Automatic annotation (TrEMBL):
<keyword id="KW-0732">Signal</keyword>
<protein>
    <recommendedName>
        <fullName>Lipoprotein</fullName>
    </recommendedName>
</protein>
<feature type="signal peptide">
    <location>
        <begin position="1"/>
        <end position="21"/>
    </location>
</feature>
<dbReference type="InterPro" id="IPR010239">
    <property type="entry name" value="CHP02001"/>
</dbReference>
<dbReference type="Pfam" id="PF09694">
    <property type="entry name" value="Gcw_chp"/>
</dbReference>
Length: 259
């Protein structure tokens, strides 16, 4: 699950028509990407690396209108801490989408997101359900505003009979001069379905709202730093791993280099 939408929105909003006046820019390359280093990988309000440092790399194809795609790999730790004997250290995301950009700069995207967690899962009874998930998404962007809706087409993150779980991401970025930007985010996860073994409703256990306040600094040459404070109202009894509340309050720093 990728945190880069906040950073991208912030950095894109730094460049206004007045501040960026000058010779016409060269067309953006078809392939681009970035590398990130972070003290704690927080996505959708949850500390996916369970408080440990992480790194992420992403390759994007076509930043403009039309068909686009990307592949990203990020270090995570929650799967191996959740399932005894698991040796699962990364999440791999695959996106295929279509983008339309209007003359007024409104961008609309829709597509599919596939999240996979490759590695070794120890044999258990009952067998472990891998958290691999497929989601459909749609997104609208205008200037520093963004709204994205993800809807699970499969069981969500290994929970049986949880298809239809959704996540809403609302983000706003406000520039402060040519280098700085402030970012605010509100997210909502609504779990669907119930545990077939116990009958417990996932909505009561796993749904939550998350919040983020962040500041982004663009250093030029494709280097940027984002520092964020995040928190949720997720129930700790369902989001604590090895004594660490992954849905608690976190301060994260993300150093990014674009290429």
């Amino acid at each position: 699950m990728r945190p880069t939408t906040l950073l991208a929105a912030a950095l894109l909003s730094l460049c206004t028509s007045a501040a960026c006046a000058g010779p016409a820019a060269e067309p953006a390359p078809f392939f681009s990407g970035y590398v990130q280093l972070m003290n704690n990988y927080v996505s959708r309000g949850l500390a996916q690396s369970v408080g440990d440092p992480s790194a992420q790399v992403e390759i994007d194809a076509n930043a403009g209108p039309g068909v686009y795609g990307n592949v990203s790999v990020v270090k995570t730790d929650w799967v191996r801490k959740l399932y005894a004997g698991a040796r699962v250290h990364v999440e791999a995301d695959y996106v295929l989408g279509y983008r339309v950009v209007s003359a007024r700069g409104v961008a609309w995207e829709t597509g599919l997101l596939r999240l996979e967690f490759p590695g070794h899962y120890a044999a258990q009874t009952p067998p472990v359900r891998k958290p691999d998930t497929t989601e459909a998404f749609t997104r609208v962007r205008w200037k520093g505003l963004s709204a994205r809706f993800n809807y699970s087409l499969t069981d969500a993150y290994g929970s049986p009979d949880s298809g239809g779980t959704w996540y809403l991401d609302l983000t706003a970025a406000h520039p402060l001069g040519p280098r700085w930007s402030l970012i605010a985010h509100l997210g909502r996860k609504q779990a669907r379905g119930s545990d077939p073994a116990t009958g417990a409703e996932y909505g009561d256990m796993n749904s939550y709202t998350d919040y983020k306040l962040a500041a982004a600094r663009n250093f030029g040459a494709g280097v940027s730093l984002t520092v964020a404070y995040t928190w949720t109202n997720a129930k700790p009894q369902f989001y604590t791993l090895d004594g660490y509340n992954v849905g608690g309050r976190h301060v994260s720093a993300v150093l990014q280099k674009d290429f």
